[in-house]
Design goal:
single chain, about 240 residues, alpha+beta, three-stranded antiparallel sheet, globular, disordered N terminus
Amino acid sequence: MARLRGGAVTAVVVIFAVAGCKDLQDKGASGAQGTGGGGAALTAADSLTVKGRAPKTGYSRARFGSAWADTDSNSCDTRDDILKRDLKDVKYTDDDCKVSYGVLEPDPYSGKVVTYRRGRSLVDIDHLVALSDAWQKGARYWDAGKRIALANDPLNLLAVDAGANRGKGDGDTATWLPPDKSYRCTYVAAQVAVKKKYGLWVTAAEKAAMKKVLTTCPGQRLPSGGNPTNAPSRFTAR
């Protein structure tokens, strides 16, 4: 796995077997991964607060700060950090920061192999919990530091096929799941982890959809780790 600058801890990937799901990487963040006990994801999903979806009024990407801010201060932007973590055979345009090439093998959403080349739109970095979804489920009431943290938290980020990601849009579990069914347990567990970490609520339909998926893999662990829930004060948002 690629070394990050500034002495930052290398992103940790834990591979675990899940009933009903094939072995997959938990690509959430640096730090401890998958530390929950058996069934932790389902238990966490059941604990999420249920409310109605608030209006999208006032949302813009700028509310979450500039894109891919270097909130972990490792001298690489967040997008390159995630590309380094999730791609194989990585190559760089300069030193070990700007990723110029890599292979997504497989893409977690579609299961296919996708080649990344800088400047081409074949690989996106997905916010597992979309920022506009977060805005409508609590983030509109946060201060800027917490919103910036969510937008750049490795726990909430994943390199994926661009086409699949754009098909997802800002959908939650009730409206979109990865086409590759074998990844759904891991995907939903990650969304639950992010919503629990940041105190975001879910709609009734969303919680029901989360539990429906996670009951098919009752041993699914809850990923953990990532960045602090407040970005350094030097970062601002509109």
